Amino acid sequence: MQSHGPEAPGDAAAGPPARDGIADEAIYEVDANDPGHTLIERAGIPPEDLRQITDLMTAIGRLREAEQRLGEASRKYMRLGDTDMRALHYLIVCAHRDAIATPGAIAQHLGISTASTTKLLDRLERDGHVVRAAHPTDRRALAITITPETHRAAMETVGRQQSKRFYAAARLTREERDVVIRFLRDMTEEITLRDEPWARPGASSI
């Protein structure tokens, strides 16, 4: 008998029904991201190695997600943006090292312009997080310090949670830490942008 309309869901000719979503683990699977082998040449890599690499990528992804959640909670608690938090972290380390933080040094650390740094410091000073003062040896410069209240709040909350990374590193042997350090440096080198056309200012995906 001739069909007069679309095949019903589940018909053999229609193929298997589509799934509703995927397991979180699949987000980091090599085959799920590159089924056609167009991104990664993996010929000759045993299946068990691919599974282990997927486990490694999943672990990195989970760490990144935990960092993002921690960062969001930190910014919400401190009522500050990401650049503001980075600036305060820089000022905290300068205070611990008895180093003078200047607007120029802050701008260089954050990778932002002088004008953007001025606006950032205006905002932080207005909200009581930093203090501007005359530089002790350079009359042309300013010294920026974090206020005791913000220093204490950051250390006892965000800083305490962030510092727990130390314990994970301390549980490794020296040899294991060497492997992790080499791996992280190697991965950083692999994904560092080097004037890729698509990443240039003004590039469009369309």
Describe the overall structure.
The chain has 206 residues and is mainly alpha-helical. The protein has 8 helices and 2 strands. It has a two-stranded antiparallel sheet with strand order 1-2. Helix 4 crosses helix 5 (114-126). The longest helix is centred in the first third of the chain and has 32 residues, at 47-78. The model has no long low-confidence stretch (mean pLDDT 90).
User: Helix and strand succession?
Assistant: HHHHHEEHHH
Order of strands across the main sheet: 1-2
Strand content: under 5%
Number of helices: 8
How many β strands by DSSP? Answer: 2
For the termini, the CA-CA separation is 47 Å
Secondary-structure-derived class? mainly alpha
Low-confidence stretches are none
What's the gyration radius in Å? 25 Å
pLDDT averaged over residues: 90
Q: Oligomerization state of this entry?
A: single chain
Largest sheet: 2 strands, antiparallel
Approximate shape: elongated
The helical percent reads 40-55%
Would you summarize the structure shown here?
This protein is mainly α and 206 residues long. The protein is 54% helix and 5% strand. It has helices at residues 30-33, 47-78, 82-96, 103-110, 114-126, 148-162, 165-170, 174-191; strands at 130-134, 142-146.
